[in-house]
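Module 6 notes. Inverse folding takes a fixed backbone as the condition and produces residue identities as the prediction. Think of it as a translation problem where the source language is geometry and the target language is the twenty amino acids. Below is one complete input and output pair. Work through it position by position during the lab.
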């Protein structure tokens, strides 16, 4: 699988017939690589799947790993001395967290692909960047939370990085207004996790009756929606309220997880999450794990060509969703497009936004 060839293409330019054979070839090779290099993964293949042969004829035939196993086992396909950084999943202080081990090559590949995907939405010019978070979120050099990984990943696309929350999660209105004075009237990038954008950015502005002109801004946000849905705030309500308070021109949600950093699914102008060339999704029945047809809701399985230092290339998530279509979105991007409904009932709260909301309730 020549990733350099894929990197030379627009990330949403191949149809299913063009993309799936390339993706399947790469995922087969990754499965064999992780079988050789990660003993616990090899035991999973042997115990659950009766061994593994490289003859999977489709994505649905590839062996998947439940994402929860990254909390329970050290799944690593590189020597410990080659680990560049360790990522931990979101979670409240009482929960176990996934540990994801990145070597230099995997981290570099994830960064390259993230840039490729986001440039399709943001362009290649680095924009003044407002971060709806606190600087203390960025911790050490070798261990990162999912929140920190998200901020650091998106920071690549910005300049004049300005954090507008203090350590008590209070909005620094003076810093915000200075930023707007410097860059107002021009394009800018705003990033934050969904609940935090709502609770610590929108709500204080609304309470203070402050209206901003951010009509040229692009808001990129991500994270669990459960805390907002509990407040009767869905995606449409979220966008309408922010636009009423700030006139933000473009708002894009994205779906992703720390277990597959770099493989993100960004919401297009039509409100659909899209699969790029480097990844894909499949929906499975929550009880039988049988693959479901387009339009049927079930567990989201995620495929990614990026994980080399850990066996995270075929993961069964604990999120429910539905594939809405493929190759025919009105935005013009090829590939599957889908919607996330939320967490499987009785699973832990894991989204960056939701876990923060729970810990600070």
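Target side of the pair, the amino acids:
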């Amino acid at each position: 699988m020549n990733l350099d060839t894929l990197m030379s293409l627009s990330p949403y330019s191949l149809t299913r017939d063009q993309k799936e054979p390339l993706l399947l070839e790469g995922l087969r090779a990754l499965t064999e690589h992780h079988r050789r290099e990660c003993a616990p993964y090899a035991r999973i293949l042997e115990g659950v799947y009766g061994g593994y042969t490289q003859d999977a004829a489709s994505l649905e035939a590839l062996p998947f790993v439940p994402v929860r196993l990254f909390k329970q086992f050290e799944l690593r396909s590189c020597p410990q001395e080659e680990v560049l950084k360790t990522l931990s999943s979101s979670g409240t202080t009482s929960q176990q967290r996934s540990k994801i081990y990145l070597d230099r090559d995997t981290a570099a590949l994830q960064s390259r692909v993230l840039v490729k995907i986001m440039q399709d939405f943001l362009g290649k010019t680095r924009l003044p960047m407002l971060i709806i978070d606190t600087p203390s979120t960025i911790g050490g050099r070798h261990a990162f939370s999912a929140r920190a990984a998200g901020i650091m990943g998106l920071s690549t696309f910005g300049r004049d990085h300005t954090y507008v929350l203090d350590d008590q999660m209070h909005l620094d209105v003076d810093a915000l207004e200075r930023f707007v004075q410097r860059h107002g009237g021009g394009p800018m990038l705003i990033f934050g996790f969904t609940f935090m954008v709502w609770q610590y950015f929108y709500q204080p502005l609304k309470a203070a009756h402050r209206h901003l002109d951010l009509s040229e801004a692009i808001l990129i946000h991500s994270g669990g929606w459960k805390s907002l849905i509990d407040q009767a705030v869905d995606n449409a309500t979220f966008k309408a309220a922010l636009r009423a308070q700030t006139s933000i021109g473009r708002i894009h949600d994205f779906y992703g997880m720390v277990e597959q950093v770099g493989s993100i699914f960004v919401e297009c102008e039509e409100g659909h999450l899209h699969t790029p060339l480097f990844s894909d999704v499949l929906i499975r029945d929550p009880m039988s794990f049988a693959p479901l047809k387009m339009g049927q809701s079930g567990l989201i399985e995620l495929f990614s060509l990026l994980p080399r230092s850990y066996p995270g290339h075929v993961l069964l998530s604990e999120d429910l969703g539905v594939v809405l279509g493929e190759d025919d979105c009105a935005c013009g991007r090829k590939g599957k497009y889908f919607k996330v409904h939320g967490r499987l009932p009785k699973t832990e709260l894991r989204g960056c936004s939701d876990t923060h909301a729970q810990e600070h309730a």
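Reference fact for the lab report: Residues 16-37 form the longest helix (22 residues).
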